[in-house]
Write a structure and sequence with these properties.
The complex is a heterodimer of chains A (about 190) and B (about 230). With about 190 residues, chain A is an alpha/beta fold. Chain A has one domain: Flavodoxin domain (Rossmann fold, 3-Layer(aba) Sandwich), CATH 3.40.50.360. Chain A is built from six helices and seven strands, in the order βαβααβαβββαβα. Chain A has a five-stranded parallel beta sheet, with helices on both faces. In chain A, helix 5 links the parallel strand 6 and strand 7. The longest helix of chain A is centred in the C-terminal third of the chain and has 17 residues. The two termini of chain A are about 10 Å apart. In chain B, about 40% of the residues lie in helices and about 15% in strands. Chain B has eight helices and six strands. Chain B has a six-stranded parallel beta sheet with strand order 2-1-3-4-5-6, with helices on both faces. In chain B, helix 1 packs across helix 7. The longest helix of chain B has 18 residues. Chain B is globular. The termini of chain B are far apart. Classes of the chains: A alpha/beta (about 190), B alpha/beta (about 230). Chains A and B meet through helix 2, helix 4, strand 4, strand 5 and helix 5 of A and helix 3, helix 5 and helix 8 of B.
């Protein structure tokens, strides 16, 4: 099994969550692939769709951090996105990377849970888990849970607990331990 | 009333999000002053000079495509910069009331409901920026908005989408109390299966124009040792 971890090492909470998740991963997976979004910038996806219609499966933008998302994670069983919760979504830096996901999707459509989604380019597609921290409000936490669950829908995985939220009203070390236990349970499924 | 509309699509003028602003313009009272910013994807050269004018408008309208279930990161970058401006001394000066914010998000999937989370994120952005969220609409079959722009608006295929944009225009024109919450989620009156087939034919014709054979759309370059095209 391969596990992918994406995080932002410029944030203290992300470093702590990463250390814990990384420990859990190395004891369970044959391969762990890591992307630290603080290490290299990702240019924004420009919605040209040439990764579907000109060089199928490969982004045409100049090679940068964002290019590594599909290269490192396409064959992972699980990918965990560790991110500050920003307006109920992922942080800007993490979303810059995630928008570069589409080369591993196929432009054609299929129905998943009654809704239209893209077909997958490869036989497998990562199950996207998410661990968020730093929400301003409970409403942002709720949106984060629902939104990251929608990201999971693309691969057709309908698990209920695929998102962990480190709430601001609890001590961080407790949240980190809890996240480790949650993650171990998720990747055992 | 002064309205400022921003097009959140990196495709700029040629996007469905831009077309939505054009349709919205025709549904607003003639005396409305509408300014449009067509290109916010300013990755290499961020330009904040527009913010003072933006902040003076009573209403801000955001139109955007959906990227991987959420807001495009390029739009988030822009909104984050505007938020910083609003919190700066220059941004606070001279503003009488909280700006009212409406949004219309569209996606390339069939169901308009996919856009729900992007709208919710914009509502949280408003809370965090001390702006007044007023709701909006989420539209599926987004590619058709641009594609049908020459078809009369009364045509039944366009009706649900035109009506959603009209509802946003009406809420905007209703003044300080106007809002459209819960948001409207809809799509063109076109069967699911036909939309899928037409969309896939569209991808094949784009591929053909790029010299790519239909079967090569399924290429799996990352399974090769050297994935470069």
């Amino acid at each position: 099994m391969k596990i992918g971890i994406l995080y932002d090492s410029s944030e203290a909470e992300a470093r702590l969550l990463f250390d814990r998740v990384s420990r859990e991963s190395t004891s369970r997976a044959e391969e762990v692939a890591v992307i630290d979004v603080a290490e290299a910038a990702s240019a924004p996806c420009v919605c040209c769709f040439q990764c579907w219609t000109k060089t199928p499966g490969i982004c045409v933008l100049k090679r940068d951090g964002g290019t590594t998302l599909s290269e490192k994670f396409w064959d992972a069983r699980y990918v965990i996105l560790i991110s500050r919760i920003t307006w109920g979504g992922l942080s800007v830096r993490v979303k810059l990377y995630l928008d570069r996901l589409i080369p591993i999707l196929h432009p054609y459509f299929r129905k998943v849970n009654g809704e239209m989604h893209h077909q997958l380019r490869y036989d497998s597609f990562p199950i996207f888990l998410a661990a968020g921290y730093g929400a301003r409000t409970k409403g942002e936490e709720e949106t984060f849970r629902a939104y990251t669950s929608a990201i999971r829908d693309q691969g057709g995985d309908a698990r209920a607990r695929g998102t962990f939220v480190a709430s601001g009203d609890r001590p961080l070390d407790a949240a980190v331990a809890e996240c480790g236990a949650w993650f171990a349970e998720e990747v055992a499924l | 009333m002064r309205i400022f509309a921003i097009n959140g699509s990196p495709k700029g003028e040629k996007s469905s999000s831009r077309e939505i602003i054009s349709i919205l313009r025709t549904k607003l009272p003639a005396e409305t002053a509408l300014s449009v910013l067509s290109q916010i994807a300013q990755y290499r050269k961020p330009d904040d000079s527009v913010f003072p004018v933006m902040a003076e408008s009573e209403v801000l309208v955001i139109t955007s495509p959906l990227f991987v279930d959420g807001l495009p990161a390029s739009l988030m970058v822009f909104l984050e910069r505007y938020q910083r401006f609003l919190q700066s001394p220059e941004g606070t000066a001279g503003r009488a009331a909280r700006q009212r914010v409406f949004a219309i998000v569209n996606c390339g999937f069939y169901e308009g409901a996919h856009n729900e989370f992007a709208l919710r994120m914009l509502s949280h952005w408003c809370e965090a920026s001390s702006l007044s969220w007023r709701g909006g609409a989420g539209i599926g079959t987004g590619e058709m908005i641009h594609g049908l722009s020459k078809v009369p608006e009364q045509a039944s295929i366009r009706k649900p989408v035109i009506q959603a944009i009209e509802a946003v225009a009406k809420a905007i024109s209703s003044g300080p109390e106007g809002r459209l919450e819960p948001a409207i989620f809809t799509q063109h009156a076109f069967p699911w299966l036909l939309f899928k087939l037409a969309g896939e034919a569209g991808w094949r014709s784009q591929a053909k124009a790029n010299g790519v054979r239909p079967r090569d759309l399924r290429a799996r370059p990352l399974e090769r040792a050297d994935p470069r095209p």
